[in-house]
Amino acid sequence: MKYKKILLTGGSGKLGQAIASSGYFGLLLAPSRKELDITKFSTVERFFNKHSIDAVVHCAALARMAECEEDPVKAISANIIGTSNLVMAVLSEEKKSKEKNKGKELQKKIRFIHISTDGVYAGTKGNYSEKDAAIPYNKYGWTKLGAECPVNLLSDFCIIRTSFFDPKNIKFEESAVDAYSSKMPINELVKAIHIMLESGFIGTINIGADKRSDYERYKGFKPSLKPCRLKDILNKVPFNMAYDASLNTELWIDFQSNRKQAKNNNKI
């Protein structure tokens, strides 16, 4: 393993649990909220002082769209301020390392993997690339876009814009035939996160599956699923949803291809 101690935030969430149980990541520190409340910088700073963190996989977020609409203050606190506190702790640790090792080449850098969302895009035309304008369509998306801003201040980071689902746990009974995305199975996203953690990639990358309607994607895993129109769903929820949030994943495809080629050449 490239990193000895990895801090996993959001370990009690669906993605965090999948990461923790995957076996890919070596020694994970997955503290509960009582142990690490990312909305309070003092607790984040204390945790970093206590543990020698080599990398961060940041999954913690308020992801329930209805709750973000109802309580944007809570969403800002969890998604924007919480991420900012982690970034400040990383920068502080790196600054201390730089001062301690002044005049030496070896200075600590902490790898930071930030899980963002396809919801930072407008969700109208689809095929969004990393270079497209980020104009979220609801408050959840805006807070996730806000969370990306401090991450860009780091020297060793990867922002993953994505969307996932659990094929074993599709709770809804109907899905839209006219809403499109690049949602990927959660286990595939976990593998991708591990690849990006171990890589030297710095920047923002879209990671997802091929474009399909939500109904088409879920039907294979839940045969009882019934088709509907997106407008039928929008009439029942207090937030906007994307008509087409599909991602252009050419950068991810090229990255995997180059990685495979380098591996075949025994370069990695």
Summarize this structure briefly.
With 268 residues, the protein is α/β, with parallel strands linked by helices.
What are the main properties of this structure?
alpha/beta, Rossmann fold, 6-stranded parallel β-sheet, 40% helix, globular
What does this entry look like structurally?
This protein has one domain (6-170, 181-210, 246-264): NAD(P)-binding Rossmann-like Domain (Rossmann fold, 3-Layer(aba) Sandwich), CATH 3.40.50.720. 40% of the residues lie in helices and 14% in strands. The protein contains nine helices and twelve strands. The strands form four sheets. A six-stranded parallel β-sheet has the order 2-1-3-4-5-10. Strands 6-9 form a two-stranded parallel ribbon. Strands 7-12 form a two-stranded parallel sheet. It is globular, with a radius of gyration of 19 Å.
Secondary-structure map:
Elements: E1 6-9, H1 14-22, E2 28-29, H2 41-50, E3 55-58, H3 65-70, H4 72-100, E4 111-115, H5 139-151, E5 157-161, E6 164-165, E7 174-176, E8 180-181, E9 184-185, H6 186-198, E10 203-206, E11 212-213, H7 214-219, E12 226-228, H8 230-234, H9 250-264
Parallel strand pairs: 1-2, 1-3, 3-4, 4-5, 5-10, 6-9, 7-12
Antiparallel strand pairs: 8-11
